[in-house]
Write a structure and sequence with these properties.
- The protein has about 270 residues and is mainly α.
- Helices cover about 70% and strands about 5% of the residues.
- The protein is built from 8 helices and 3 strands, in the order αααααααββαβ.
């Protein structure tokens, strides 16, 4: 079963791997491509946590208020640096230095979050709730901004409206970059297509898992406690009209009974005293 805590940790590992790739990158073109991925992944991840995860923790555990507020401030500082990097070119002499500071800050944030907030999230939610949130996560990532907006609200309900506006602005920016900076724009669009494919896979896996659990449990419903089949359970009782002060209830034959040669419209009438 998919789990939101596992997905958040997977996002953390992905970002950490991207930082390592940037630090080991050869050539400005390669580093620019990796930096674009870092900016987008962190922007999406921060927005999802701010609009969904942190409010849930604050609502269910008032004692977690200080930890959540500290995490929000760490997000704000990271988004400020991300916004600067988003407008710079990798050739800028301050670019690598800013990315190094950002990596140190994000790694510290990940360590604290996985030590404090994620265990709280596990304690405060059921397995079913975490699975439902995980299933909704890919769709939410399609709605939140994919560029950093450090001055936008980061708590609901203001963050919801601000996020929708920021998403429109980000889409416009991505389209403009396809014209002004084709290489940068194509990298953004490729990342977006990849996220859509991943989202579709998660949704299909979740549907398949639900279908498998349903098909596994359904045969038991037609058997009694001693394991014998209950043919009457497959019949559907329909209330009939009242005639002569009595009500006639019809019990239509099951598909199995119809298959044994009984007419499809055969019915048995049970007279019940009013």
């Amino acid at each position: 079963m998919i789990d939101i805590v596992t997905q958040i940790k997977d996002d953390h590992r992905k970002v950490e791997a991207l930082f390592e790739k940037f630090e080991q990158g050869h050539g400005n073109r390669d580093k620019q491509r990796i930096a674009e991925q870092i900016i987008e992944e962190l922007s999406l991840h921060a927005s999802v946590e701010e609009q969904l995860i942190y409010p849930l923790i604050r609502m269910r555990d008032k004692g977690a208020e200080d930890a959540v507020l500290e995490a929000l401030e760490e997000h704000h500082l990271a988004k400020t640096t991300l916004a600067e990097l988003d407008e710079m070119a990798v050739e800028d002499e301050r670019y690598d230095a800013k990315m190094t500071v950002l990596a140190e800050s994000v790694r510290h944030h990940i360590e604290e979050e996985e030590r404090d907030l994620l265990p709280k999230l596990e304690r405060l939610t059921t397995d079913t709730e975490r699975a439902r949130i995980a299933e909704a996560l890919p769709r939410l990532k399609e709605l939140v901004p994919n560029h950093p907006h450090p001055m936008a609200p980061d708590t609901p309900p203001q963050s919801l409206f601000g996020g929708l506006l920021a998403k429109v602005l980000d889409t416009t920016k991505d389209i403009a970059r396809l014209v002004i900076a084709p290489e940068k724009g194509r990298a953004r669009m490729a990342a977006k297509d990849k996220r859509r494919r991943e989202a579709a896979k998660v949704m299909n896996d979740a549907r398949a898992e639900r279908g498998a659990s349903t098909s596994t449990s359904s045969p038991a419903a037609s058997r009694s406690s001693n394991g014998r089949e209950l043919p009457e359970a497959s019949r559907q009782r329909r209330p009939g009209p009242r005639r002569g002060g009595e009500r006639q209830d019809r019990c239509w034959p099951s598909q199995g009974e119809q298959g044994r040669g009984q007419p499809a419209r055969q019915e048995r009438v049970f007279r019940l005293a009013r």
